[in-house]
Amino acid sequence: MINIVLPVDFSDKTDLLVDGAIEFAKKLNGKINLIHVAPTDIGFAIGDMGYQYFPEIEENEIREELVLLNKINQRILAHDIDCEHLLKQGIAKDIILEYADSKKADFIVMGSHGRSGIYDVFVGSLTKGITKSSKIPVLVLPIHD
Fold first, then answer.
1. Rounded to 5°, angle at Cα 78 from 35 and 73
2. N or C: less crowded end of the chain, CB within 10 Å?
């Protein structure tokens, strides 16, 4: 069976990315290993007293993201595609590549929003970073309208 790693970020284009990954998995009789990487600074806020950490904010956000991840997992399973999921906190590029390695992935499926230039300079591009660093093929799906 072909192992596909599918990182999701819950952006407004996630549904398009998941649709593309489902079609890809169907064609290859693949299994989707769904992953979401939450940032490590979710519970931090800046106020009058500087940085403060609120663990309840982080816990609530992680809980909400896990609910969203479970929904995507169920959607993939409804298409008769084997799927498992993982939510971790940390540096997205590193965790995704480690996860792909641990799953002995054949492909990583990523999305491209069609942005370039100045956007990449200031925001960076996870897809670009994964593509440059991955030892396995990365399928980049256009997920813009």
1. 15
2. C
2: β partners: 30
- Decide: helix, strand or coil at residue 102: helix
Residue 3 tokens read as 């192992």
Q: CB under 8 Å to 105, separation ≥6 — which residues?
A: 3, 4, 5, 33, 99, 136
* Closest to 140 in 3D by CA, of 120, 113, 122: 113
Spatial separation of the C-alpha atoms in residues 4 and 103, rounded to whole Å: 9
Regions of the chain short of the pLDDT cut 70: 42-49, 51-55, 113-124, 145
Instruction: Tell me the residue range of the domain where 29 lies.
Output: 2-142
Distance separating alpha carbons of residues 144 and 123, to the nearest angstrom: 17
CATH number for position 45: 3.40.50.620
Domain total of the chain: 1
